[in-house]
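User: Just a sanity check before I run the rest of the batch. Below are the C-alpha coordinates for the first item. I only need the designed sequence back.
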Protein backbone atom coordinates (compact mmCIF):
# COMPACT_ATOMS: atom_id res chain seq x y z
CA UNK A 1 0.00 0.00 0.00
CA UNK A 2 1.17 3.53 -0.77
CA UNK A 3 2.44 5.65 2.13
CA UNK A 4 -0.25 7.86 3.67
CA UNK A 5 1.71 11.08 3.20
CA UNK A 6 2.37 10.20 -0.44
CA UNK A 7 -1.34 9.47 -1.03
CA UNK A 8 -2.32 12.82 0.49
CA UNK A 9 0.15 14.72 -1.68
CA UNK A 10 -0.71 12.75 -4.82
CA UNK A 11 -4.36 13.67 -4.32
CA UNK A 12 -3.26 17.31 -4.11
CA UNK A 13 -1.27 16.80 -7.30
CA UNK A 14 -4.39 15.48 -9.04
CA UNK A 15 -5.97 18.88 -8.34
CA UNK A 16 -2.93 20.66 -9.78
CA UNK A 17 -3.09 18.53 -12.92
CA UNK A 18 -6.80 19.24 -13.42
CA UNK A 19 -6.14 22.95 -12.82
CA UNK A 20 -3.36 22.85 -15.43
CA UNK A 21 -5.79 21.23 -17.87
CA UNK A 22 -8.32 23.99 -17.27
CA UNK A 23 -5.65 26.67 -17.67
CA UNK A 24 -4.57 25.19 -20.98
CA UNK A 25 -8.18 25.17 -22.17
CA UNK A 26 -8.39 28.87 -21.26
CA UNK A 27 -5.15 29.49 -23.18
CA UNK A 28 -6.54 27.63 -26.19
CA UNK A 29 -9.80 29.58 -26.10
CA UNK A 30 -7.84 32.83 -26.03
CA UNK A 31 -5.84 31.79 -29.09
CA UNK A 32 -8.98 30.58 -30.85
CA UNK A 33 -10.48 34.01 -30.25
CA UNK A 34 -7.38 35.57 -31.79
CA UNK A 35 -7.73 33.30 -34.86
CA UNK A 36 -4.48 31.49 -34.13
CA UNK A 37 -5.59 27.91 -34.72
CA UNK A 38 -2.19 26.23 -34.30
CA UNK A 39 -1.61 27.84 -30.91
CA UNK A 40 -5.17 26.93 -29.94
CA UNK A 41 -4.69 23.31 -31.05
CA UNK A 42 -1.37 23.11 -29.20
CA UNK A 43 -3.01 24.15 -25.94
CA UNK A 44 -6.12 22.01 -26.44
CA UNK A 45 -3.77 19.04 -26.83
CA UNK A 46 -1.81 20.12 -23.74
CA UNK A 47 -5.10 20.31 -21.80
CA UNK A 48 -5.90 16.71 -22.68
CA UNK A 49 -2.40 15.65 -21.70
CA UNK A 50 -2.70 17.30 -18.28
CA UNK A 51 -6.12 15.74 -17.76
CA UNK A 52 -4.65 12.36 -18.57
CA UNK A 53 -1.82 12.95 -16.10
CA UNK A 54 -4.45 13.44 -13.40
CA UNK A 55 -6.22 10.29 -14.52
CA UNK A 56 -2.96 8.31 -14.42
CA UNK A 57 -2.56 9.39 -10.83
CA UNK A 58 -6.15 8.43 -10.05
CA UNK A 59 -5.57 4.98 -11.57
CA UNK A 60 -2.39 4.52 -9.53
CA UNK A 61 -4.24 5.29 -6.33
CA UNK A 62 -7.04 2.90 -7.29
CA UNK A 63 -4.49 0.18 -8.10
CA UNK A 64 -2.71 0.84 -4.78
CA UNK A 65 -6.02 0.47 -2.91
CA UNK A 66 -5.71 4.06 -1.70
CA UNK A 67 -8.31 6.79 -1.61
CA UNK A 68 -8.47 8.81 -4.82
CA UNK A 69 -10.23 12.17 -4.66
CA UNK A 70 -11.47 14.28 -7.53
CA UNK A 71 -11.14 17.86 -6.34
CA UNK A 72 -12.67 21.05 -7.58
CA UNK A 73 -10.27 23.63 -8.96
CA UNK A 74 -10.16 27.42 -9.07
CA UNK A 75 -11.10 29.18 -12.28
CA UNK A 76 -8.17 29.63 -14.66
CA UNK A 77 -6.82 32.94 -15.86
CA UNK A 78 -8.66 33.71 -19.07
CA UNK A 79 -7.76 37.29 -19.98
CA UNK A 80 -4.35 37.95 -21.44
CA UNK A 81 -2.52 41.15 -22.38
CA UNK A 82 -0.97 39.73 -25.54
CA UNK A 83 -0.02 36.51 -27.35
CA UNK A 84 3.04 36.04 -25.12
CA UNK A 85 1.22 35.98 -21.77
CA UNK A 86 -0.48 32.56 -22.04
CA UNK A 87 2.77 30.82 -22.99
CA UNK A 88 4.71 32.59 -20.22
CA UNK A 89 2.03 31.48 -17.75
CA UNK A 90 2.23 27.92 -19.11
CA UNK A 91 6.02 27.80 -18.66
CA UNK A 92 5.74 28.99 -15.05
CA UNK A 93 3.06 26.37 -14.48
CA UNK A 94 5.26 23.59 -15.91
CA UNK A 95 8.20 24.67 -13.74
CA UNK A 96 5.95 24.63 -10.67
CA UNK A 97 4.64 21.17 -11.55
CA UNK A 98 8.22 19.95 -12.00
CA UNK A 99 8.96 21.03 -8.43
CA UNK A 100 5.76 19.37 -7.19
CA UNK A 101 6.61 16.10 -8.92
CA UNK A 102 10.14 16.15 -7.51
CA UNK A 103 8.69 16.71 -4.03
CA UNK A 104 6.39 13.71 -4.49
CA UNK A 105 9.37 11.55 -5.42
CA UNK A 106 11.14 12.81 -2.31
CA UNK A 107 8.17 11.92 -0.11
CA UNK A 108 7.94 8.43 -1.58
CA UNK A 109 11.67 7.94 -1.05
CA UNK A 110 11.56 9.29 2.53
CA UNK A 111 8.66 6.95 3.33
CA UNK A 112 10.38 3.93 1.76
CA UNK A 113 7.46 3.68 -0.69
CA UNK A 114 9.41 2.25 -3.61
CA UNK A 115 6.37 1.49 -5.78
CA UNK A 116 5.19 5.09 -5.58
CA UNK A 117 8.71 6.36 -6.25
CA UNK A 118 8.91 4.16 -9.34
CA UNK A 119 5.48 5.34 -10.51
CA UNK A 120 6.59 8.97 -10.29
CA UNK A 121 9.69 8.33 -12.41
CA UNK A 122 7.74 8.68 -15.64
CA UNK A 123 6.41 12.06 -14.53
CA UNK A 124 9.94 13.31 -13.81
CA UNK A 125 10.94 12.50 -17.38
CA UNK A 126 7.72 14.03 -18.73
CA UNK A 127 8.32 17.30 -16.90
CA UNK A 128 11.77 17.71 -18.43
CA UNK A 129 10.12 17.43 -21.85
CA UNK A 130 7.27 19.78 -20.91
CA UNK A 131 9.55 22.53 -19.60
CA UNK A 132 11.83 22.24 -22.63
CA UNK A 133 8.92 22.38 -25.07
CA UNK A 134 7.27 25.35 -23.36
CA UNK A 135 10.61 27.18 -23.02
CA UNK A 136 11.22 26.83 -26.76
CA UNK A 137 7.69 27.97 -27.58
CA UNK A 138 8.04 31.00 -25.31
CA UNK A 139 11.26 32.05 -27.08
CA UNK A 140 9.52 31.80 -30.45
CA UNK A 141 6.44 33.67 -29.23
CA UNK A 142 8.53 36.45 -27.68
CA UNK A 143 10.53 36.90 -30.91
CA UNK A 144 7.42 36.77 -33.07
CA UNK A 145 4.84 38.62 -30.95
CA UNK A 146 4.39 41.29 -33.63
CA UNK A 147 3.92 38.63 -36.31
CA UNK A 148 1.86 35.81 -34.77
CA UNK A 149 1.56 33.97 -38.08
CA UNK A 150 5.28 33.18 -37.69
CA UNK A 151 4.36 31.36 -34.48
CA UNK A 152 1.69 29.45 -36.38
CA UNK A 153 4.29 28.46 -39.00
CA UNK A 154 6.67 27.29 -36.26
CA UNK A 155 3.99 25.11 -34.68
CA UNK A 156 3.02 23.66 -38.07
CA UNK A 157 6.66 22.76 -38.68
CA UNK A 158 7.66 21.58 -35.21
CA UNK A 159 4.42 20.19 -33.81
CA UNK A 160 2.47 19.39 -36.96
CA UNK A 161 2.84 15.62 -36.82
CA UNK A 162 0.93 13.36 -34.54
CA UNK A 163 3.09 11.78 -31.91
CA UNK A 164 2.29 8.26 -30.90
CA UNK A 165 1.37 7.43 -27.35
CA UNK A 166 4.29 6.83 -25.00
CA UNK A 167 4.27 3.08 -24.33
CA UNK A 168 6.01 3.68 -21.00
CA UNK A 169 3.28 6.03 -19.72
CA UNK A 170 1.20 4.86 -16.77
CA UNK A 171 -2.36 3.76 -17.49
CA UNK A 172 -4.97 6.47 -17.09
CA UNK A 173 -8.24 5.77 -15.31
CA UNK A 174 -10.93 5.44 -17.95
CA UNK A 175 -8.37 4.41 -20.55
CA UNK A 176 -7.33 7.98 -21.35
CA UNK A 177 -10.56 8.76 -23.17
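Assistant: Here's the designed sequence for the first item:
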Amino acid sequence: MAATRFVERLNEQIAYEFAASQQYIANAVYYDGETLPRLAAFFYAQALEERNHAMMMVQYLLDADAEATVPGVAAPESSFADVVAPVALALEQEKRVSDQIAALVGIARDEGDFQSEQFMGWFLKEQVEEVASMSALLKVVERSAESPMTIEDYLAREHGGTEGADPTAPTAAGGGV
